[in-house]
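Fill-in record for Aliphatic nitrilase.
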Amino acid sequence: MAEKRIVRVGAVQIAPDLDSLEGTLTRVLAALDEAAGKGAQLVVFPETFVPWYPYFSFVLPPVLTGAEHLRLYDNAVIVPGPVTEAVGAAARRLGVVVVLGVNERDHGSLYNTQLIFDADGSLKLKRRKITPTFHERMIWGQGDGAGLKAVDTAVGKVGALACWEHYNPLARYALMAQHEEIHVAQFPGSLVGPIFAEQIEVTIRHHALESGCFVVNATGWLTDEQIARIAPDEKLRRALTGGCMTAIVSPEGSHVVPPLTSGEGILIADLDMGLITKRKRMMDSVGHYARPELLSLNLDNRPAVPVHAGAFPVQTGSASDETDGPGDRSRADADGAPDQRVAVLRGAAR
């Protein structure tokens, strides 16, 4: 029998500092110390927690969001930069894996970015949310397939998606096919109302069942004072309540510990990694339960860049040459050749 492997994890539900990047970072580092002090080997924070989630964009019309949007730019995270250095140093000092959501600034654009730090402090993954949702599209640019990775860490293979990316079954399957053992989900929290918390719970429990992995989910929290500050119109403040479902779910779809749905706190749970095999023995979505000859996923995992530098072939010859000359045959051959830049996930290696 294989030796039983237990991983202790922590899911953090706290409020950001709405005044400064430094203030929220201080809260992150304090929560890391607290979770590590309780034995956590993996610590998860909410979606774009640093410096804060752009709640303003949900309750204010676009014409009134300019000042807050610019303030978010001023407080956003450069990767790599001082924030990643500070969090990486804390991860290394404490010996913990950290998954942190940030507003990343890349020159003139902001992105919803998930960062995975290994226990040695190295940044294992920087990924950007592939499709911002509704109001978020006024704030963030789109990510690409390069970030759809499950990475090896000190606690096992970890994959991550943000919020409604979990409603994209192909994005989830891309991580499942890479055999993620712990899936990190991050949502903003304090948004939409109780129905959002219910939807989060359904979503993460379903992913745990379908993927046969553990799910660690963190949502954010806003105080009454912060809600009033973000939404001066009292009628809109209800839109910034509820929606909290910080939870840790087993591969069998059940809560490992009761979820945290209000207030601040850190959930701590021990994960029996043997439950992954127990679940997959019955149903392995990317193994014996898959039908790759019928259904498969094409993943373009190239980084999206605005400029492609390189030598490109120059077409020559007359119009008639283009239809029946050797150049046409060579182009046809090229069109029929497999594109090696596209990773084809046709079921997982067994």
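KEY FINDING: The CA atoms of residues 160 and 271 lie 17 Å apart.
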